[in-house]
C-alpha cells in the first residue's frame, strides 16, 4: 500500500510508465498526477484547460514522456 496523495476527483485512468518508476493517475477534472512508484511521493500534477476527463494514459518507451488522452 502506497501513501499516495489522493486526487480531488474520481480517477478515470491509471498507468505505470514503461520503466515502472512512475505511476500516473488521470481524473475526471482533466488533471494528471504523477507519483514515484517506489515511495508513493507525488512528483507532479498537471491540469490542462477545459477540464475534460482523462480517458487514457500512455508513456514513451524510454519513460521520459507521459501522454494523456481526453474524452
Structure description:
By secondary structure, the chain is mostly beta strands. The protein contains no helices and 6 strands. The strands form 2 sheets. Strands 1-2-3-4 form a 4-stranded antiparallel sheet, with no helix packed on it. The chain has a two-stranded antiparallel ribbon with strand order 5-6. The termini are far apart.
**Topology, number of strands:** 6
Number of helices: 0
One letter per element, helices H and strands E, the order comes to: EEEEEE
Major sheet characteristics: 4 strands, antiparallel
Give the helix level as a range of percent. under 10%
Structural class: mainly beta
Order of strands, widest sheet: 1-2-3-4
- What gyration radius follows from the Cα positions, in whole Å? 11 Å
Average pLDDT reading: 86
* Spatial gap, N to C terminus: 30 Å
Low-confidence stretches: none
| Strand percent estimate | over 45%
Indicate the overall shape.
globular
Q: Helices and strands in order, then pairings?
A:
Blueprint: E1 11-16, E2 22-27, E3 31-36, E4 42-47, E5 54-59, E6 66-70
Antiparallel strand pairs: 1-2, 2-3, 3-4, 5-6
Features:
71 residues; mainly beta; 4-stranded antiparallel beta sheet; 0% helix; globular
What is this entry, summarized?
This protein has 71 residues and is mainly β. The chain is 0% helix and 49% strand. The chain is built from no helices and six strands.
Amino acid at each position: 500500500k502506497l501513501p499516495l496523495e489522493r486526487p480531488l476527483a474520481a480517477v478515470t485512468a491509471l498507468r505505470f510508465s514503461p520503466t515502472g518508476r512512475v505511476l500516473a493517475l488521470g481524473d475526471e477534472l482533466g488533471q494528471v498526477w504523477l507519483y514515484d512508484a517506489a515511495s508513493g511521493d507525488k512528483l507532479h500534477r498537471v491540469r490542462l484547460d477545459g477540464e475534460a476527463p482523462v480517458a487514457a494514459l500512455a508513456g514513451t518507451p524510454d519513460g521520459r514522456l507521459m501522454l494523456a488522452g481526453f474524452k
